[in-house]
Design goal:
Elements (H helix, E strand, L loop, with lengths): L24 H14 L3 H11 L9 H17 L3 H13 L6 H11 L3 H14 L4 H16 L7 E4 L9 E5 L7 E6 L20 E7 L5 E6 L9 E7 L5 E10 L2 E13 L2 E2 L3 E2 L10 E6 L5 E6 L9 E8 L2 E2 L3 E2 L10 E7 L3 E6 L9 E7 L5 E6 L10 E6 L5 E6 L9 E6 L5 E9 L9 E6 L4 E5 L5 E6 L4 E7 L6 E6 L7 E9 L6 E2 L17 H13 L4 E7 L6 H21 L7 E7 L8 H6 L11 H5 L3 H11 L1 E8 L6
Parallel strand pairs: 23-29, 31-32
Antiparallel strand pairs: 1-22, 2-3, 3-4, 4-5, 6-7, 7-8, 8-9, 8-10, 11-12, 12-13, 13-14, 13-15, 16-17, 17-18, 18-19, 20-21, 21-22, 23-26, 24-25, 24-27, 27-28, 30-33, 31-33
Amino acid sequence: MNHFFSDITKIIPIVATVVVCSGCSVNQTIKKADKKYEIGEYYKAASIYRMAYPRVSAAKERQKKGYVAYRMGTCYALLNENSKAEMALKNAVRYKGDSLACLLYADVLRKNNKAKEAIKQYDAFLETHPADSRALAGKSSAVDAVEWAKNPTKYVVSKVDLLASKKTESSPAFPGGDSSTVYFATTRIEKGDKRKNSKITGLPTHNIYVARKNSAGAWDQIEALEGEINTIDDEGAPCFTADGKTMFFTRCRSVKGQSLGAEIYTCQRQGGKWGKVSKVELSKDSSITFAHPAVSSDGRVLYFVSDLQGGFGGKDIWFSIKNESGWGAPQNAGSQINTAGDEMFPTFRHDSLLYFSSNGHPGFGGLDIFCATLGNDGSWKSVRNMMTPINSSMDDFGMSFIEGAESGMFSSNRDERKGNDHLYSFVLPPVLFNITGKILSTSGEPLPDATIRVVGNDGTNLKLHAKKDGTFSYPLNKNVKYVILGNCRGYLNRKETVATEDLEDSKNFNVNMQLASISKPVGLDNIFFEFGKATLTKESDKSLDKLVALLNDNPNITIEIGAHTDRVGSAEGNLELSGQRARSVVDYLVKKGIESDRLTAKGYGKSTPVVVDAKLAKQYDFMKEGQILDDGALDQMTKEQQDIANQVNRRTEFRVLKTTYKMY
């Protein structure tokens, strides 16, 4: 059929029982529509059936009315006008127009995202055809697709608007895997083009076009191929050898309005132009259809779609191996690939992956894209659905990859009211891991002299230098455990761990390290005691555990734990309470495994009020940097400000006493 590679061939016409009509004018109209239908002129046939349908009496000729509705719905389904197809097939089921009406109606309902209604129709069909593989697969798909859609893959899909026209575009191919050039079939019409609208589709016949990217990386220079490739007939589904110098494509010739079936042609690129076109001889029988070529990288194996006898039903994918005299006898790609439905639009990737479209394998509706892997025994195995967002409830086909990349294009008629195909780009974003952070002092100041050691269990061991603002970053590998060690002269070391093991999504690990000064007291945040007592509350554990980690990261230091109170209460009572609180912290650290001779507890009571630093001054506008929060300062404050100052003075700190513990 001369439309073999275009939209309407994605579904095999279901043969219905021919009703013999005679007599009145409506019967003549139906006969005329039947003739158009039988020769594949579905666009014209649909319009004639539509005129005949209201003229058939539902009361007197119920079965005939159902027949017309079935034929009309089949035409619309083949033309991808699925809303019209749904209405017509609903009437075909109602008037029992054909035994297969429920099946086709269910298929169209799936395309229109009406899974529940589709399941009812599949069930109705299975009552009389319990072993029908298409119905069983369709019902299973309708049930499963709802759950599948909840778990899309990580592919990012976008319509390629710069290549879209008001007509159709399909079957993209990158010559030699070149990302800057794409070939595709289209029904667009340029000025001076002599092509006419097809009686089959109502659209112009397809030609092969090429588009190239400009210096800005945008698609540009969209033009029809030169030379003998394009004619007034249909051309499409181009593919290339690995060097991009040999092209195979489909041509559907028509002579005096009669289709001669689909044929595969080839040509060579020489001197920057495509040369003479020649037909690929795969059979002496000219009535057999051959289309949708896919060639191996070395040009020795050609895959294609055909209606050859000996297949599994519908259109199958076959292959032929080149020999000294030409192409060998076609061989079926096998039951792992082919089903009772249609398998079409094969494309290769690395010769070991075969992408193809099918409406026979479980899917979302219409044609779905599948991937098969070549096994060691030379047969295709592990057929898997590419899932959403690659696949939709409509037709998705012609997937083509850019060489060396997880990206490319495919064709789809999703979101198209008229069912027109357009090109969609796809990309699988790489799973990337990165660590970013900042090295600061505990008072919040950047430490530009800091170094960061990154050690991984994959052998990574490197030294990074923080920038002037204290920031650093580094890409991480998959499935690795890392230790990140921050270090700066005059400060204690700090260690963090991150791991990329078992992570499927990209992730940025944000690790900010605050390094404690060796020469100054360092406040311990969120250390809480019961009111008026030295008993630590549970809320203190997190902060104290960080101190335990710090001591383990710096095994050669000894520290003093200093506890301070505010000015409320007697000096003697505050001094005693602060000493007890310092001892409580030391006891906690010892229980966590820190040697007791590394720890000293000291209570300061209210004798050492805080000296306001830049961080506090920024946090509280009534405090000034360098100000001592003693009695004199607090007496000048409001009651609310005094409460805040008292809270600041109530603190637990540590300071480093020695940095040579057990070193000598």
